TrEMBL record, chain A:
GO BP of this protein: GPI anchor biosynthetic process
Protein name according to UniProt: GPI ethanolamine phosphate transferase 2 isoform X2
CDD domains: GPI_EPT_2
PANTHER family xrefs: GPI ETHANOLAMINE PHOSPHATE TRANSFERASE 2, PHOSPHATIDYLINOSITOL GLYCAN-RELATED
Top-level taxon in the UniProt lineage: Eukaryota
Main location: endoplasmic reticulum
Species of origin: Cricetulus griseus (Chinese hamster)
Pfam family, one: PIGO_PIGG
Keyword hit for Chloroplast: no
Protein's membrane topology: Multi-pass membrane protein
Keywords in alphabetical order: Endoplasmic reticulum, Glycoprotein, GPI-anchor biosynthesis, Membrane, Transferase, Transmembrane, Transmembrane helix
TrEMBL record, chain B:
Gene: Pigf
Primary localization class, coarse: endoplasmic reticulum
Record Pfam families: PIG-F
Keyword set includes Coiled coil: no
Keywords recorded for this protein, A-Z: Endoplasmic reticulum, GPI-anchor biosynthesis, Membrane, Transmembrane, Transmembrane helix
Protein's name according to its UniProt entry: Phosphatidylinositol glycan anchor biosynthesis, class F
Compartments, as annotated in UniProt: Endoplasmic reticulum membrane
């Protein structure tokens, strides 16, 4: 099967998109969510079940505790309290844990063990997935149902002192607050004193219901000197004295009010042996959770060992303790010891509420929920509960009632455990199997690309893709069988859900076919290469013209950029990498122009300047008028030999020499445009777009569509009538200018200089660099790619989700329409790469003299676009327990995926426009 | 090309390296709390001065470019003046390039300029010593197959490696390791210095290994 290299590249990138999609689907597990939005009204709580009649107890149970104090100590590991360190440095807490009225647990945190997701887990009871970050793009406000929100709705007065992350998550929820920042890691004294200084006043006042304290000092010490530092001991003693102060104050208040209060001591995550956190080692995930209240009865001599529970269990317990509804998305189960002292009816009521909430969540997330053992247990328990309530209301105070009650209780607890487990396995893990399959597909495509690179670049643009023979070969079927067997094995054995297994069999089989076909194609390409290699060796005696400095730079720069993706700082500061590379490219080009002007190299083909008359005209004027100059494409190029005589314009040699410097200056200006934070200062809000300019924007849309339509028409005409490349060039130029117009409409006003400079640089580079120096199609493609990437960052983007300009999606729309808004946002974000790619297309088709330039360029573009993605996927897989995986690497992965999708679309367009020549040839 | 030439080249290069080391150790005798990172600008000045001094000394003593032309005193004076102007121009030129690369325009001007000075010390001054203020010769040396002696070959290697060192030195700046040497322009100056030293060390070795293949047009 013969394919043009462009078509080959386009199909390969399309396959790669599938691979990346599978990978991303496995990397970001879908979170367990209740479908009801959090903006519900007052929802009546579920009534007590009762056989026959309806119960008289339909209101929510009253709160168990009058006041709740939550002391969250950042990076408090379990052995800091329960281990030898606790005995040594936290005597009061140890006393409470061992002898006092308290319940202590070891709460397991789910990775990523980083503060913000952990706070979310503690307060919502859900396991936050990365999808949440995307869901609330710009605002870090916690949108899910959580204890704080419920508490506020119930009219509780809440006070918060500590890490300001809470204030970002819960703005306007606290009646009084003071945030401390975790920015200065070296400070571990002031950051805690700033919390403690409010304590005396607040404890004395007592006009609050919930007090939350978040101490950061311990975490800072861990980051500075690790868990074995002597500073840890001091800090633990400090914390112990604070806990003693709070507890004694609470006890004295209790004597006045006679209602119990609750003190919760917990850590958000642990600390590894080096003092950091984020991954999933035992030290990092085990945190202590101590509930202290006079309501907990304890017989002397009752020795308890801390039980292992989930961190998410706290949310449900707190909700019950405060007498508010349990957060909807909570997957935790109530900590039973807390309610153990209550009367049987209340205990059953609480357990029923919790189980009902979990089973609702299960119903909404698992299609086959009825077969879940936990759900069956729940139904059974609910029925028994109903009977029990009926008996109870009949004033039957016998042993039968107690026995039945205990049975119901046990049934409920079993149901809770099973439900909670099956819900949390939904989200807990990376779906390694899907990730592996995605990676395999992507890597296979990359290898195929790399294997065919020498073929495409050195010889003709037609490629012999051996597809038919492998499909009918024995090897293919064997691989397919083995893969299917592996698939069945993995899907039947794995406990956690996995995306590929939940696909229908046909789709999964299709993926397997894809994998095996690619493998066969790689094998046959390898074999062919070995055969070709023996043939080539004879010709390899005279090496080619060799690599020029620019070639070397392009190669090294690409490789260096790809490698830099492994470091989180380089991902965060990727714009610096691109600016650096583009600047170096300009300097290299300037060196090349200098050399080709001053010293005629004799080993290389002469680079004569071929500056047209119009090239001498003022650059700015030509930018403004370039549509006219492009609409009349110059006549067929004269041969190389005649170019010297034609170059009367070489009197203006200085324009050629100066143009790289002009580009450099432009780049510097654009960079400072973004560094000064212009985008933050003049950010027009959505209402600006909504109220003004809808008619105007629609007017422009009509124009853009018209221009794009005529462009496409010209392209089709060129394809059907096959006149000559002139029509096609005009069509491409029209499409390019249409896109420019659209970009001008969508970009923020302050970003319009970026667009103008982009056009200027395109014109300058075309006129004075690429045309006179006669670069190869591959070189020009890579340069376009680099400039496209640089402009992606020049326009204010970054590898952070927060910088996506969503307002572009609202231009000219009066309401939110998903499809056009998404399209416009994506285009607005990727203006730089798209415009440079369309310029590349137009430029190469206007340079019609060199044959298969366009398809070769398509191949190069696909290759250079897919190398970073493939490498990045491997890197992200190996770094999946990195501290910054959620904040830095994951957004970048999404950006890369989107970029690949756009590359695929561009390659398809490339191939479509290139068909003309093939049909003629 | 004889082995003695290569030996002479090696010795003179070692002398240059020695001057770099000298600039690290000598000032600590006179100045309290001198260190490369803390008092970086002082080190830049001393390093630049000592490298310049050694280069001039080498130029006067060794005289690898035996200029047969007789020249008058005034000619010599203009030559020296021209050299100074070239040096200054190259400093400004490099400064502009750093700013184009993203160095802060207004803040840290002195730091950026001293970086330009030290980089042009490593690159321009050897060129000026060896080739004189003669742009044509510079272009010849730095174009492909343009070198005519091992001295020029060594010059080519050291200059390019200094530039590459400075270029690579910019890479650690965005990393969040928070080390004192990541501050602009310390990593770049250190990179340039390492590149210069590496070029000085490697060029005689490279020339020695490839002495069979190297044929110079005029020699």
């Amino acid at each position: 099967m013969r394919l043009g290299s462009g078509a080959f590249a386009a199909s390969c990138v399309a396959i790669e998109v599938i691979g990346v999609a599978i990978f991303i689907r496995g990397f970001f597990p879908a979170p367990v969510r209740s479908s009801a939005g959090p903006e519900h009204g007052v929802e009546t709580p579920a009534p007590e079940p009762m056989a026959g009649a309806s119960s008289n107890w339909t209101k929510l149970p009253s709160p168990l505790f009058n006041k709740v104090v939550i002391v969250l100590i950042d990076a408090l590991r379990d052995d800091f309290v329960f281990g030898s360190k606790g005995v040594k440095y936290m005597p009061y807490t140890t006393y409470l844990v061992e002898k006092g009225a308290s319940h202590s647990f070891v709460a397991e945190a789910k990775p990523p063990t980083v503060t913000m997701p952990r706070i979310k887990a503690l307060m919502t009871g859900s396991v936050p997935g990365f999808v949440d970050v995307i869901r609330n793009l710009n605002s870090p406000v916690l949108l899910e149902d959580n204890v704080i929100r419920q508490g506020k709705a119930a009219g509780k007065r809440m006070i918060f002192y500590g890490d300001e992350t809470w204030l970002k998550l819960f703005p306007k929820h606290f009646v009084e607050y003071d945030g401390t920042t975790s920015f200065f890691v070296s400070d571990y004294i002031e950051v805690d004193n700033n919390v403690t200084r409010h304590l005396d006043k607040v404890l004395q006042r007592g006009d609050w219901d919930v007090l939350i304290l978040h101490y950061l000092g311990l975490d800072h010490i861990g980051h500075i000197s690790g868990p074995n530092s002597p500073l840890i001991g001091h800090k633990l003693s400090e914390m112990d004295s604070i806990l003693m102060k709070i507890h004694t104050s609470l006890l004295s208040k209790e004597r006045e009010t006679l209602s119990p209060s609750l003190l919760v001591v917990c850590g958000d995550h642990g600390m590894s042996e080096t003092g950091s956190h984020g991954a999933s080692s035992t030290e990092e995930v085990s945190t202590p959770l101590i509930l202290i209240s006079s309501a907990f009865e304890r017989k002397p001599g009752d020795v308890r060992h801390p039980k292992h529970v989930q961190q998410t269990d706290l949310a449900a317990t707190l909700a019950i303790g405060l007498g508010v509804p349990i957060p909807k998305d909570s997957v935790g189960s109530l900590l039973f010891p807390v309610i153990e002292g209550r009367p049987m009816r209340e205990q059953l009521r609480f357990l029923h509420l919790n189980t009902l909430q979990l089973s609702k969540l299960l119903q909404e997330n698992i299609p086959s929920y009825e077969k879940d053992p936990g759900f069956e247990q729940f139904k059974m328990a609910e029925r028994l509960h109903g009977n029990w309530v009926k008996l109870h209301l009949e004033e039957n105070h016998s042993d039968i009632l107690l026995g039945l009650g205990t049975k119901v209780l046990r049934q409920y607890l079993g149901a809770l455990k099973t439900l909670s487990l099956s819900l949390s396995t939904q989200v807990a893990h990376y779906d390694i199997y899907s990730m592996a399959v995605g990676t395999v597909v992507v890597l296979e495509v990359l290898i195929l690309f790399l294997l065919s690179t020498p073929h495409v670049l050195c010889r003709k643009a037609e490629l012999d893709v051996p597809l038919l023979s492998p499909v009918f070969s024995l090897l293919f079927y064997m691989i397919f069988l083995v893969l299917s067997a592996i698939h069945v094995l993995v899907c039947t054995s794995s406990e956690s859900s996995c995306y590929l297994c939940s696909l229908p069999w046909l789709a999964a089989g299709g993926v397997m076919v894809l994998v095996s076909v690619l493998l066969c194609a790689i094998l046959s390409a390898l074999i062919r290469m070995v055969i070709d290699g023996t043939l080539l060796k004879k010709r390899a005696a005279h090496p080619g013209s060799g690599w020029s400095e620019v070639d070397l730079l392009l190669l090294l720069g690409t490789v260096g950029h790809v490698l830099s993706l492994g470091a989180s700082s380089f991902v965060e500061e990727e714009h610096q990498t691109w600016y650096f590379l583009v600047n170096t490219l300009c300097l290299a080009l300037s060196q090349e122009t200098c050399r080709s002007y001053f010293v005629g190299d004799d080993c290389e083909p002469q680079h004569y300047f071929q500056v047209e008359e119009q090239g001498c005209s003022d650059i700015l004027a030509s930018t403004l008028l370039d549509s006219t100059s492009y609409n009349t494409p110059e006549p067929v190029r004269t041969g190389k030999g005649a170019s010297l005589s034609e170059a009367q314009g070489s009197c203006k040699w200085w324009t050629v020499l100066a143009s790289p410097w002009l580009v450099l200056i432009c780049c510097r200006l654009l960079r400072s445009l973004n560094q000064t934070g212009v985008q933050g200062a003049h950010r027009p809000d959505l209402s600006h777009w909504l109220t003004r300019g809808i008619i105007e924007a629609r007017f422009v849309y009509v124009f853009v569509l018209g221009i794009l339509f005529t462009g496409t028409k010209d392209l089709l005409k060129a394809q059907v009538i096959a006149t000559d490349y002139k029509t096609r060039t005009i069509g491409l130029w029209e499409i390019h200018s249409g896109l420019v117009l659209l970009a001008a409409l969508l970009l923020r006003p302050h970003n319009l200089p970026v667009l103008a400079f982009s056009l200027l640089i395109q014109t300058v580079m075309t006129k004075f660099i690429w045309k006179p120096l006669r670069h190869d199609a591959a070189e020009i493609t890579v340069m376009h790619y680099w400039f496209g990437q640089a402009f992606f960052y020049f326009q204010g983007n970054s590898n952070n989700i927060a910088t996506i300009d969503i307002s572009a999606g609202f231009v000219g729309l009066d309401t939110y329409l998903e499809v056009p808004a998404t399209f416009l946002t994506v285009f607005g974000t990727y203006v730089g790469p798209v415009l440079w790619a369309s310029h590349l297309m137009h430029f190469l088709s206007s340079e019609a003299s060199n044959g298969p330039a366009l398809s070769r360029a398509c191949f190069c573009y696909a290759l250079i676009g897919s190398v970073p993605v493939a490498t990045y996927i491997v890197l992200v897989t190996s770094l999946r327990y990195h501290l910054f995986i959620w904040s830095v690497f994951s957004p970048k992965l999404l950006y890369e995926g989107m970029h690949l999708l756009i590359t695929a679309a561009l390659c398809a367009v490339f191939t479509a426009t290139d068909q003309t020549r093939h049909t003629r040839a | 090309m004889k082995d003695t030439d290569i030996k002479r080249l090696l010795y003179s290069n070692l002398l240059c390296i020695f001057s770099v080391f000298l600039s690290i150790f000598i000032p600590s005798l006179f100045l309290d709390n001198f260190s490369i990172l803390e008092t970086h600008l002082t080190w830049l000045c001393t390093c630049s001065a000592s490298v310049t001094g050694v280069n001039l000394l080498l130029h006067l003593v060794v005289k690898p470019n035996v200029s047969s032309r007789r020249s008058s005193l005034s000619h010599k004076v203009t030559r020296v003046l021209k050299c100074c102007i070239y040096f200054l121009l190259s400093c400004f030129f490099l400064h502009i390039i750093f700013v184009l690369y993203g160095a802060p325009l207004i803040e840290l001007v002195l730091e950026t300029f001293l970086f330009a000075v030290i980089l042009s010390t490593f690159t321009t001054i050897p060129c000026l010593c060896l080739l004189g203020p003669n742009l044509k010769a510079w272009l010849r040396v730095f174009s492909r197959n343009g070198v005519t002696s091992i001295w020029e070959n060594s010059l080519q290697i050291t200059t390019i490696s200094s530039f590459i060192g400075a270029w690579l030195g910019a890479f650690p700046i965005p990393l969040d390791w928070e080390r004192p040497w990541q501050v602009w322009p310390i990593s770049c100056t250190l990179g340039a210095t390492f590149g210069y030293v590496a070029g000085l060390v490697s060029s005689p070795l490279w020339i020695y290994w490839n002495r069979k293949q190297l044929t110079y047009k005029s020699n």
